Amino acid sequence: xxxxxxARSQMALSLGFxxxxxxxxxxxxxxxxxAEWRWRRTNDAVYLQLAKRWAKGxxxxxxxxxxxxxVLSFELGLLWPKFMELAGPxxxxxxxxxxxxxxxxxxxxxxxxxxxxxxxxRAHMAAGLIVAASGAASAVFVIMVNAWMxxxxxxxxxxxxxxxxxPIAGMFNPSTVQQALHMLLASYAATGLAVxxxxxxxxxxxxxxxxxxxxxxxxxxxxxxxxxxxxSGDLSARTVAxxxxxxxxxxxxxxxxxxxxxxxxxxxxxxxxxxxRFSLEVPYGLSLLAFHDPSxxxxxxxxxxxxxxxxxxxxxxxxxxxxxxGTAMALIGVWVAIVVARRRDIVEQRWLLTALLVATPFxxxxxxxxxxxxxxxxxxxxxxxxQRTADAVTPMPGLVIPMLLFGLLYLGLGAIVVxxxxxxxxxxx
Amino acid sequence: MSDFxxxxxxxxxxxxxxxxxxxxxxxxxxxxxxxxxxDLLASGPRRAAQRDLxxxxxxxxxxxxxxxxxxxxxxxxxxxxxxxxxxxxxxxxPITLLLxxxxxxxxxxxxxxxxxxxxxxxxxxxxxFAIASAVTPILLGIIIGAVASEDVATxxxxxxxxxxxxxxxxxxxxxxxFAVGCLALALFAFLAAIYLTLEAKDDALREDxxxxxxxxxxxxxxxxxxxxxxxxxxxxxxxxxIVSAPWSLGLHVCTALSAITxxxxxxxxxxxxxxxxxxxxxxxxxxxxxxxxxxxxxxxxLTIQAAAAPPVTLKLLLAGLAGGGAILLPSxxxxxxxxxxxxxxxxxxxxxxxx
Lengths: 429, 355
What we know:
The complex is a heterodimer of chains A (429) and B (355).
Chain A: H1 3-42, H2 45-79, H3 81-114, H4 121-150, E1 156-158, E2 161-163, H5 167-171, H6 176-205, H7 209-243, H8 245-252, E3 258-259, E4 263-265, E5 268-270, E6 275-277, E7 280-282, H9 285-291, E8 297-298, H10 312-341, H11 350-358, H12 362-376, E9 381-383, E10 387-388, H13 389-392, H14 400-428
Antiparallel strand pairs in A: 1-2, 3-8, 4-7, 5-6, 9-10
Chain B: H1 2-6, H2 10-40, H3 47-58, H4 62-79, H5 81-90, H6 92-114, H7 119-148, H8 151-157, H9 164-169, H10 175-199, H11 203-234, H12 236-244, H13 248-267, H14 271-293, E1 296-298, E2 302-303, H15 304-307, H16 311-339, H17 343-348
């Protein structure tokens, strides 16, 4: 394994591990506050029990998210020192703001978790809301950095040197709004539907009031986000089409440049033969989706030098997985909306509960797939058009060792977290 | 002195703020590691009570205290990207080990607090937490010691031309960085023991931590002396700064005065005074390091000026810090006020959140 590939793998592992905890850290506070709010409004003790149970799970997940996030902030320098030397002065600003948002989040999480009897009800609710808001703000700041790596602005590149930097322009680059929206909705949809799925699974066996309340609150957060996510995905895809045509061609498996390009569903890109096999083609679909014009020209991979291609199969496959799971989640969201609109009892709908149970991991798998699309799809660049990943990596040899070390560490932590969560869920089952 | 004042520009102000933030991390996050050390060394008839007091004091605040370190890292790569890149390269190994320590400390702590497993499970998590708490400060000290030792500069200049051991091991795997590591551990344990005398509501327990604080004060003195002795050959610039700079006498007098005050206050059980004096002592020891290597950010190779990002970045960063600080400081004050001194009470009433 080359050092570059080991470094990329370690970064992918660290981000792939952290992103799940980050999503949960964004959405769970909202669920806790909702439950507490219902309790204070209705005096129904089940809601209080629910708020405290969710808080207990969140405390563990938040801590793991915090330490894995710390690892990432150091890894930027450990693995990509040249990237940080180039990009630090521009992207340091959103990272610094993220630092403060994270600080606020950690402070008020402490207040929320341990302050039930110590502060007024109003202050306690406010602490929970601050945790929810600062978690969302953290995500937006971090995504600003990633968006900048995809569509860098706020700098002038002259003879390989960056001059005239403008960190504020870097923060508000062409991808910021779309990516931030997509990530936030992903967090609420993935976490909301995962929590709903866990409680739906228990309801199938044992319909208690506790799990009924839990399911309904989780759906309040998860279902609308899942329904809205395809729209935000469309926005993101059109941004990619405009600013990162190679990434678009890779994720679609589009080799030829053509007008009225079809949308390919599934299939396998054969890179050597330069064509995508076995896919279901929807005529004009891609032109229509990417440019909102059935006859729009879509540039294929063949229009670009081969050394600028990202690895095509994982990008195409990742995109298919993300879209498939996202669509399934949106359909479940619509199903929930229909049941609610017809004033039926969700707990009676066993097929819907089963679908929710099956979809428990969908959001997180879709997130990993989507993150693969945006990161692998940007290769060979770490900063699109400005710095190649190979030029950013540390000169330290033997990088396979830290990669394996962190791989084992995350594997162990993941197993423990799953075991802990299972036992916390079982307590109430 | 006037040369010093004239040399202060935007970059130097940002560097100063980084040391202030690091100082906050040492006083708050550092003490949390020290708490883990006393968990590891818990002994005597009140062993369980000692551990409960430590766990209950840490629980609401450790995550917030930990964020200071992230702010240091973020400020470093924003304001001094060249220095951050060099440190990340040459000190890859100790920083990686530090991260493993940070991950294990934090996760083991929450796994113990929220685990539903048997008491044997909880005991193992407690042990993992305590060991990680003791090892991580040593690694932090090793990293600081390596920066001060001037070997980072030498190693960075030899990347690609020297053996792996010369570039990636020698700068930190040496006596001086380890001495600084031990000093950091002793300082954190000293702070923690003093803070815990104020958290304890029970006289016997308070006495336990008073004795531990006095013991740690001796360890601080010993490791400080060893560090100073070893610094002469490995960190000549720093030694020169510490021994003969115009400010050094004042710094030494203040450090000595605060150390004596802390010990006398501990002896006479004036714990609030001891806390302030100990915090001052630890801060003064910390500040000796950047002052001694000024104007270098990495001795002998990168000055603060040379490593600094463009002025626009530094100005924005300072503005961001001012804005962030305006939210952060009152919030932290609120956090500490909400929980100060209540750890013992929580331990007695049975911790409802961990049950």
